[in-house]
């Protein structure tokens, strides 16, 4: 289609040009005829090119086609007049109709994608108006400059009516304004080369029209223009047709202007204004007075400069407002949690620091109980919605001057900016509010929380960080008492049940010698049901703090997970267990396997493999005797990466066990993804003596799956002989629990003796 249109245009241009130059007599007749043919053909090409396009690409081609069609119709009217009144003077009122094409070009340029808003966000209409003012300002300045330097004898206007002179001048001035607008768009609106091509062709067309219109203005009294002088009226429509045939740019518009282009956009309109002012000043200094036309142009330029400055002031005001709004938004983002809209840790610490020492304050530290189960069972999207609902309830439980913050994950804190006596009632209101189930998308979700409360003593010098650590310690004390409760910090300088556990744990592990800070390793036997023989032991960390006294493993392990210290505990237990391997072999009469717990979070971190290899090489323990139990205290984010770490550990000869199988919602997913050798059934799946039907069916299913995958099974939570017997009847071979021995230090270990139960043995160790 495009090729055919190009061929048509070329033929028309060739034929009309030949006719233009070989016509012997009537130049006006041939000029009007050829311009009619070219204009009509260009209009037809624009309408044809608009078909199959949509939106802006269609709209500007239709506008061009309409303007060219009107231009051709006026030429047709002139041609009829040439035939009927060959000697008519060029004073026809129909000249005004030629302004339809410049108007169509103006609307086309204003709707072009190059007029998209500049970096200062404004409306499209405001941007278009600024473009028009700049164009008229530059064109007016250039016109004044030319008028002041061009000799008056260049103008052949003698005997011509004023209306004709004004109309002819209007064509040239319109061409100058349009050409200026195209220049501004090309210089100040970057875009792809393909998108700029039709704009450049349109600018060339305007220049072609402008040349012929200017020559006509200068030679009004000389009659019709010569073929060379009227060539612009042929070339202009042709170039517009070529612009309509250009292919649209692919992809989105180019990037916003750079700083260099923005400066050009601001300064360019004032360059010709300055030059014109200098020229007028020179002429005035030489004693040449201003003509009425120059004075009019001067006042017009002044008005346009004032209008342009007003737009610049508006631009600056809008820009400052946008910058201020952006700063406020960035400040809010820096100090607020994006999910819940609550204050974040930075804002909470800042407010707490400013409040300390100036007025009584109290801090509540809340940690959601078992929130991980919500994420695992309903997904993280549901978990986010629950966190948002929790934030709303906590806001409703405090006063307008109190600050509720989300410190991260499922941790929240409240800064009570009133009498400390109101702290405990506020904490209980929060607990009661969170105990109410959340109904989201038809799902009823229950969430509890453990809260720690700390109130600084009057006159006590405290930092915000120390106060938060105390609140954190009180929260863990609440968890030790039982979840869903609140505990008040009651620690003293010499320790106590609510001591600052995160700080104490960090101090205990900072020296690199955990044993000297109260850490030791206990061992619990793993026993074969058939003969009561110990086939392995599980190494477990225990901590007796010199300040806080004995700390429950669930508490200090949880604190270590939250503070990033769990790797130090894991490595200490691994080293000590490998060191005690020889003594364990003496106690049980032969080498036995050692199970060492490793946090699942370490599978995505560096250092685990190096720690294992170092411990085995240092102690000389065979890798086949070491079993690493993956304890999922935190969600394994990348199972594929974790599986790669497990495979490398197994390549050393180390075996992998999946601990507490059945206690999480993604246990089967881990069993499928992680190449494990042993599965340890959680106590919730081994109470077959209490619920033989349901628990027995579940346990039997897991045993079948593991047997098919060639995975050994260890049953945890064995406390009674009846449970051991029931599990043996189901096909479970090995178990662990208080029935066979509680965890104890190395010197208190002894082989357990229980009545043997009939079963086919499956050995976990040779």
From TrEMBL:
Q: What keywords are annotated for this sequence in UniProt?
A: Membrane, Transmembrane, Transmembrane helix
Segments traversing the membrane: 29-50, 62-80, 92-110, 131-150, 162-187, 199-218
Query: Mind telling me which InterPro entries this protein's record contains?
Result: Biofilm_reg_signaling, EAL_dom, EAL_sf, GGDEF_dom, Nucleotide_cyclase, Rev_trsase/Diguanyl_cyclase
**Is the keyword Membrane in the record?**
yes
UniProt domain EAL: residue ranges: 498-757
The name this protein carries in UniProt is EAL domain-containing protein
Domain of life of the organism encoding this protein: Bacteria
The organism is: Paractinoplanes pyxinae
Domain (GGDEF) ranges? 359-491
Provide an example Pfam family for this protein: GGDEF
């Amino acid at each position: 289609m495009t090729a055919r249109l190009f061929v048509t245009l070329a033929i028309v241009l060739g034929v009309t040009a030949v006719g233009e130059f070989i016509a012997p007599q009537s130049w006006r007749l041939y000029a009007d005829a050829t311009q009619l043919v070219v204009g009509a053909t260009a209009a037809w090409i624009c309408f044809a090119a608009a078909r199959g396009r949509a939106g802006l690409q269609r709209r500007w081609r239709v506008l061009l086609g309409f303007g060219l069609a009107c231009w051709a119709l006026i030429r047709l009217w002139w041609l009829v007049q040439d035939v009927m009144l060959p000697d008519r003077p060029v004073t026809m009122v129909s000249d005004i109709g030629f302004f339809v094409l410049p108007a169509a070009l103006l609307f086309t340029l204003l709707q072009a994608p190059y007029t998209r808003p500049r970096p200062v966000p404004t409306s499209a209409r405001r941007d278009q108006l600024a473009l028009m003012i700049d164009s008229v300002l530059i064109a007016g300045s250039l016109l004044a400059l030319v008028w002041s330097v061009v000799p008056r004898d260049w103008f052949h206007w003698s005997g011509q009516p004023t209306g004709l002179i004004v109309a002819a001048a209007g064509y040239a001035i319109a061409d100058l304004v349009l050409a200026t607008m195209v220049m501004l768009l090309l210089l100040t609106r970057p875009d792809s080369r393909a998108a700029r091509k039709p704009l450049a062709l349109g600018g060339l067309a305007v220049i072609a029209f402008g040349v012929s219109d200017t020559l006509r203005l200068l030679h009004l009294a000389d009659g019709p223009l010569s073929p060379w002088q009227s060539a612009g009226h042929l070339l202009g429509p042709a170039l517009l047709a070529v612009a309509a045939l250009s292919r649209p740019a692919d992809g989105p518009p180019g990037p916003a202007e750079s700083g260099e282009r923005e400066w050009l956009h601001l300064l360019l309109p004032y360059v010709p204004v300055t030059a014109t002012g200098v020229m007028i000043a020179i002429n005035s200094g030489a004693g040449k007075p201003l003509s009425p036309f120059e004075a009019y142009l001067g006042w017009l330029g002044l008005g346009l400069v004032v209008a342009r400055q007003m737009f610049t002031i508006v631009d600056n005001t809008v820009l400052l407002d946008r910058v201020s709004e952006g700063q406020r938004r960035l400040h809010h983002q820096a100090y607020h949690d994006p999910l819940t809209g609550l204050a974040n840790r930075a804002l909470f610490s800042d407010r707490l620091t400013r409040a300390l020492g100036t007025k009584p304050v109290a801090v509540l530290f809340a940690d959601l109980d078992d929130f991980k189960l919500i994420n695992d069972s309903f997904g993280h999207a549901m978990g986010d919605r629950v966190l948002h609902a929790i934030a709303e309830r906590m806001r409703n439980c405090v006063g307008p001057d109190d600050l509720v913050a989300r410190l991260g994950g499922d941790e929240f804190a409240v800064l009570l900016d009133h009498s400390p006596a109101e702290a405990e009632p506020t904490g209980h209101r929060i607990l009661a509010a969170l105990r109410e189930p959340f109904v989201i998308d038809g799902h009823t979700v229950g969430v509890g929380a453990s809260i720690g409360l700390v109130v600084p003593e009057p006159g006590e010098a405290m930092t915000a960080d120390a106060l938060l650590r105390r609140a954190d310690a009180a929260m863990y004390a609440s968890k030790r008492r039982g979840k869903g409760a609140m505990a008040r910090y009651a620690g003293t300088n010499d320790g106590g049940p609510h001591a600052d556990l995160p700080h104490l744990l960090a101090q205990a592990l900072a020296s690199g010698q955990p044993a000297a800070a109260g850490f030791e390793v206990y061992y619990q036997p793993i026993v074969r049901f058939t003969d009561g023989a110990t086939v392995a032991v599980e190494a477990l960390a225990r901590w007796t703090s010199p300040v806080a006294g004995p700390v429950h493993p669930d508490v200090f392990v949880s604190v270590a997970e939250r503070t990033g210290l769990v790797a130090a505990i894991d490595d200490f237990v691994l080293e000590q267990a490998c060191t005690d391997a020889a003594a364990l072999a003496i106690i049980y009469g032969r080498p036995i396997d050692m199970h060492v717990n490793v946090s699942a979070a370490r599978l995505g971190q560096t250092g685990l493999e190096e720690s294992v290899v170092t411990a085995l090489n240092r102690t000389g323990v065979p890798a086949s005797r070491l079993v690493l139990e993956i304890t999922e205290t935190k969600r394994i984010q990348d199972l594929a990466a974790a599986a790669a770490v497990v495979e490398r550990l197994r390549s050393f000869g180390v075996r992998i066990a999946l601990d507490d199988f059945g206690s999480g919602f993604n246990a089967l997913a881990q069993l499928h993804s992680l190449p494990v050798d042993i599965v340890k059934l959680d106590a919730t799946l081994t109470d077959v003596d209490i619920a033989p039907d349901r628990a027995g069916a579940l346990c039997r299913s897991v045993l079948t799956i593991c047997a098919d995958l060639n995975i050994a099974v260890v049953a945890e939570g064995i406390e009674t002989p009846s449970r051991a017997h029931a599990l043996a009847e189901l096909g479970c071979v090995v178990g662990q629990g208080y029935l066979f021995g509680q965890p104890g230090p190395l010197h208190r270990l002894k082989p357990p003796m229980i009545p043997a139960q009939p079963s086919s043995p499956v050995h976990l160790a040779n």
